[in-house]
Amino acid sequence: MNHREWNESTLVMLLAGGQGERLYPLTKRRAKPAVPFAGLYRIVDFTLSNCLNSGLRRVFVLTQHKSLSLDRHLRVAWSILQPDMGEFIQSVPPQLSLVSRWYAGTADAVFQNLDLLEEERARYTLIVSGDHIYRMDYREMLQFHADRDADLTVACTEVSVDEATRMGVIQVDGEAHIRGFAEKPTHPATLPNRAGRCLASMGVYVFKTEALVRSLIADAKSESTHDFGHDVIPSMLSSARRLCAFDVIERLPPTQRYWQDVGTLDSYFETNMDLLGANPPFNLFDPGWAVRTHIGHPPPALLRNADGYEARAVNCIVSPGCMLSGAQVFNSVLSPGVQIDAGATIESCILMPNVRVGAGATLRRSIVDENVVIPPGMQLGCDVDADRSRYTVTKSGVVVVGEGTLLGGSSW
Amino acid sequence: MARILIVDDEAHQRLLYRELLEDEGHLVLEAADGAMALEIVRRETPDLVILDINMPGPDGLQTLRRLHDLNPRLAVILNSAYAAYKDQFVSWLADAYVTKSSRTDDMIATVHAVLAQRGNNRVAQSGRPHA
Fold first, then answer.
1. How many Å lie between the alpha carbon of B126 and the closest alpha carbon of chain A?
2. Model pTM score
């Protein structure tokens, strides 16, 4: 099929309704997909850019918890398609048209939007999540799905056994048919020829729409947590449905093999840091794969010496609108509008939009959320035990300061 | 014996099904519209609902949504003179779809099949309906 035909035959449902509890406090006031990422972007921009770069322009974004910030971003950054030409990126809050409650799980979110599936009547439905960072041309997967006449195709990638215990683990035969599926197993099945490695679901699904509807209705009428991984896929596997696995390592070029779930603070931090190395696994600079966003119209970034201190930024993402006045910044991600004053040192940090860091402050391995003001001379991430009594500190010792936190001397 | 609710705005259609189902030994309840059907389902907890589609007020498909909301596992047979509703996804919420005709064998056979399926599900305690 060509570009236009894939678009006409495919509807995308982007799941963006989760509470994002494991990303708290970054999700204190916003949905997970709306959390800033890599300086300029929001997490959801990566999946939406995948859609756009794959020529898929019929996208419903299913929102729920704390969706205002996400809605605002979708309206400002993603009102780029032509609804009168049958293309759209449409934010959809729960309609309560089938049941009078909020979404109970990922499958329930799609089930409750049966009317959208009816309205579009696409041959295929692509289900994606708004909290993953990856690059993928979905057309490769759609072609694979169509060639095998599958009812469901699950995109998967290789992970360690440890990671696999937190994911959906897939067993396949020699022809890529799924023969086993276990959600978050205690003892994951490993790959036959790859000791210590497992094949795990990326939460990207292509369904024949009619098979999807049948499976969702069966799930809705059963005792279930109404989750694709927990319920729908195992149930389809035990019926006569044809399920296939699309292994991205085997079937996509190296540029499309990186995939990260940024659902925890540690993975969010590490995935940001991944972008700063000499050969980042996700290339933001590829003109053939633009990642879209919207950041308004900030002035350029400015690094200037001040008060006898030199301004430096090494291995950093420095967004427009940042002003480093005699500050030293290493291995960090600075969002638009960050201001750092003379003598301050920032190492391995993520500073979100409009964070201000006062003169002489020292920040290490910290995430500081939007608009937080760090007073002059303050230390963060230098004594993690002390920080633990005041802020969120992750398992790996990253200090997280949430939006709206007032710090000592913030009247500065 | 099962408790079966017939929902149809046509009194003669309800009477026809009542006689057939009572002959089969079932207890029959009747509702002339969707609102009344919901009230009876709340009060009487029938085992099966036979649901017409074209009715004044909330139609059968709208009523089917509300029934699903009340009890996702309630057995429902949609019953319409029009076969075309069968293609609508929401109609797939029902366990079966019978097109109205002068022959009533289809309806009786479907009632048996749906009740048997529900009985099997209860025995198996799977709770999973027929896809």
1. 8
2. 0.94
Neighbouring residues of A273: CB distance < 8 A, sequence distance ≥ 6: A331, A333, A348
- In one letter, which amino acid is A176? A
The two tokens of residue A276 are 């700063």
The complex's ipTM works out to 0.91
For tokens 């971003």, the residue is A73
Residues of chain A in contact with residue B92, where contact means CB-CB under 8 angstroms, are: 213-214, 217
Cβ burial, residue A26 (10 Å; 0-12/13-18/19+)? buried
CA angle A211, A217, A219 (to 5 degrees): 100
**A117/B65 touch (CB, cutoff 8 Å), yes or no:** no
Interchain CB contact of A96 with B (< 8 Å):
no
CA dist A91 and A235 (Å) reads 29
In chain B, the largest separation of any two C-alpha atoms, in whole Å, equals: 39
The answer to whether the Cβ–Cβ distance between B127 and A223 falls below 8 Å is yes
To the nearest whole Å, the CA of A131 is away from the closest chain B CA by: 29
As a whole number of angstroms, the distance between CA A387 and CA A412 comes to: 21
Identify which of A117, A218, A222 has the shortest CB distance to residue B89: A117
Of B65, B90, B129, the CB nearest to A221: B129
Residue type, A299: P
User: Using alpha carbons only, what angle is made at residue A114 by residues A113 and A120, rounded to the nearest 5 degrees?
Assistant: 100
Query: How does pLDDT run along chain B (131 residues), one tens digit per residue?
Result: 999 999 999 999 999 999 999 999 999 999 999 999 999 999 999 999 999 999 999 999 999 999 999 999 999 999 999 999 999 999 999 999 999 988 899 999 999 999 999 876 665 544 333 33
* CA end-to-end distance (rounded Å), chain A: 60
Q: Which residues of B touch A99 (CB under 8 A)?
A: 68-69
Instruction: Quote the minimal CA–CA distance from A222 to chain B in Å.
Output: 5
